[in-house]
Each structure stands twice: as C-alpha cells, then as structure tokens.
C-alpha cells in the first residue's frame, strides 16, 4: 500500500469497485502525482463488491470508511469514483469545516453543474463530519440516488457543501457503461424519507465480513454485500 510521508494532511481515498480493472491503472497514474504534488500523506482503499447483488456504491463507501479507520487517524476521507479524473492538480484534496464536493464540473455534463444539490463523483468529509451524518445510506441497490441522499444528510446535520472555484473543479470521465448494473428505481421513495432514515441506516446498522489484500499501491477490500447485512424498515 503506497503512503507518502512528510506531509501536512493525512487523506484516505476510498474507491468503490466492480469490474473496472482497466480503469484502476489510469486512476492511479493520474492521482498519485497530483497528491504527491499537494504534499499530502495518502492511502488508497479499493472496496470491491463480490457476489450477485446489484452494485451498492454507498454501502461500499461505508465499508471502506470503517476499514480505513482501523489504519490510523485521517484528516480527510475522499469518496472517489474510479472513472473521475481531476483536470487541475490544484484542486486540493483536503477537508475543511464543511463537506467538500470536488467534482463540480464534469465533462459529460458540459462542465456545468447538473443541479445545485448534485454531490456526485468525488466528495470529501472529515471523519467527524462523516460520523455525524451517519455515513452513506445502505439501502440504495443499483445506481442512482445515493449522492442526493448524502446531500440531504449533510444539510440535516447542519453543514453546507463547498466547491472549488472557477475551473479547479473540472473532471474528465473515463467512458464506460453500467455493465450489469441496474438503475435503482426505488430511489425517489427513499429520498422522500431521507430525514427519517438518516440515523437508522448508515454506519450504525452495517455488518460485513471483508477479505483484505494489501497491494503496493492500495488496500483491496473485497466484500459480498447483501440487504440483510444492513437491515432497515421498508418505507
């Protein structure tokens, strides 16, 4: 696992993963020089979902957070899609008093914020902030909706979201298709009950059994996710 010393902040970068092996080398080739230039002490955690259930990006982030906490005290936790590459290495991967949305301008959206509550792609929170909001929701199976729920959690906890100024928040998306990934059709119903669900679905109701492999560049956390690992009342 690659770690860079003699720096200011300690940053854990969490990457949810399934069947994107061609993206990992591109991701590391892009991110490592940038984080080194920013003089950050950093480590990558690739959280890989096994099994046959629909992809659960949010639950993978929760698993990665819990595992990263076992490795030390982090100043900032970055929740990073593997197919998002920052175009400007001055987009500083540190956390502040408020949660940060780093990927404010994506090429696939013509570098325009799709909507004000958009919180997707790459975000960063301190350990205290992430624990206060009870992490991501675990109930979003398939793609779509979990970032909107995270936005709600952040605001219900009294935080505001900050973004990079100007062109600092520009990102390139590596082309891909949601291969074998289904869209989560129940997301709108869950989002209507974000506030009611926040403190019963998240870090505090998650059980899992990880398989961990420490590589030269990253820690790989394999986990077979199932709905019964994070039971919650059906809304």
UniProtKB/TrEMBL annotation:
Q: Where in the cell is it found?
A: Golgi apparatus, Golgi stack membrane
Q: Which UniProt keywords apply?
A: Disulfide bond, Glycoprotein, Glycosyltransferase, Golgi apparatus, Lipid biosynthesis, Lipid metabolism, Manganese, Membrane, Metal-binding, Signal-anchor, Sphingolipid metabolism, Transferase, Transmembrane, Transmembrane helix
The membrane topology term of the UniProt record is: Single-pass type II membrane protein
Which reaction does this enzyme catalyse, per its entry? a beta-D-glucosyl-(1<->1')-N-acylsphing-4-enine + UDP-alpha-D-galactose = a beta-D-Gal-(1->4)-beta-D-Glc-(1<->1)-Cer(d18:1(4E)) + UDP + H(+)
Q: In which pathway does it act?
A: Lipid metabolism; Sphingolipid metabolism; Protein modification; protein glycosylation
Q: Give residue ranges for domain Galactosyltransferase C-terminal.
A: 100-177
Gene Ontology CC annotations of this record: Golgi cisterna membrane
Q: Where is the Galactosyltransferase N-terminal domain?
A: 9-95
Q: Which GO terms describe its biological process?
A: carbohydrate metabolic process; glycosphingolipid biosynthetic process
Protein's name according to its UniProt entry: glucosylceramide beta-1,4-galactosyltransferase
Lineage per the UniProt record: Eukaryota, Metazoa, Chordata, Craniata, Vertebrata
